[in-house]
């Protein structure tokens, strides 16, 4: 493998529970009736926020526009990142340092907006580790389609089959594999309680620290 591409939410930063909470809050604020324990969002893990709201707006007959829902959601996330987020998921920083030491091209391919990706990377002081930051909102189709991963590989100047992806969601692993990339699934206990279907991944780890660089890089 000649490049490593990271998903962000649930891989770089443990934000999936916050995403879910803020998203549910935005839906309730605009009239959707959802129980606190609902598994409404599980199937959407890894997808772009506009795509999620577009689907749920139809299902729950929400009058607010997708743009209004997205703005409400993003405001909550910005508040969380600025006030609460302090460090990346355990094992990420040593992994990034190792990749930088080996001059391996590294990127983020996330379903979050470009604004959120940049905010997280800056807050966690990870700017120097990434050559590309690519949002699913920059391509025509979000995960589980491969577009964001193919776009990221293109920007890195690396063939998709030479890229290794680290993902924590079903939709993300599908996207990576459909792009022709090697995919490591990270079973984050805070992403759907660690019960995400990662069967499309080439291998699955329970901790980022289990990923050994020398096993994959050429």
From TrEMBL:
Cofactor(s), by name: Mg(2+)
Coiled coil: none
Keyword annotations from UniProtKB, A to Z: Carbohydrate metabolism, Magnesium, Metal-binding
GO molecular function: catalytic activity; metal ion binding
Record keyword Magnesium present: yes
InterPro entries: Beta-PGM-like, HAD-like_sf, HAD-SF_hydro_IA, HAD_2, HAD_sf, PGP-like_dom2
Family: Belongs to the HAD-like hydrolase superfamily. CbbY/CbbZ/Gph/YieH family.
PANTHER family for the chain: 6-PHOSPHOGLUCONATE PHOSPHATASE, HEXITOL PHOSPHATASE B
Name of protein: Haloacid dehalogenase superfamily, subfamily IA, variant 3 with third motif having DD or ED/haloacid dehalogenase superfamily, subfamily IA, variant 1 with third motif having Dx(3-4)D or Dx(3-4)E
Source organism: Propionispora hippei DSM 15287
């Amino acid at each position: 493998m000649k490049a490593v591409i990271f998903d962000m939410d649930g891989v770089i930063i443990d934000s999936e529970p916050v995403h879910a909470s803020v998203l549910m809050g935005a839906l309730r604020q605009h009239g959707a009736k959802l129980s606190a324990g609902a598994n409404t969002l599980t199937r959407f893990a890894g997808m772009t926020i506009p795509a999620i709201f577009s689907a749920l707006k139809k299902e729950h007959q929400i009058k607010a526009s997708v743009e209004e829902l997205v703005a409400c959601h993003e405001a909550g996330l910005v508040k969380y990142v600025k006030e609460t987020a302090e460090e990346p998921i355990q094992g990420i920083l040593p992994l990034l340092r190792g990749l930088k030491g080996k001059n391996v091209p590294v990127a983020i391919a996330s379903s979050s907006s470009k604004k959120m990706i940049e905010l997280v990377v800056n807050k966690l002081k990870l700017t120097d580790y990434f050559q590309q930051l690519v949002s699913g909102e920059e391509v025509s189709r979000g995960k589980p389609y491969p577009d964001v991963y193919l776009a990221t590989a293109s920007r890195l100047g690396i063939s998709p089959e030479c890229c290794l992806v680290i993902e924590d969601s079903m939709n993300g692993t599908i996207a990576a594999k459909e792009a022709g990339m090697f995919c490591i699934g990270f079973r984050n206990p805070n992403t759907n309680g660690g019960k995400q279907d990662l069967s499309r991944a080439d291998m699955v780890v329970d901790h980022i620290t289990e990923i050994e660089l020398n096993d994959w890089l050429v």
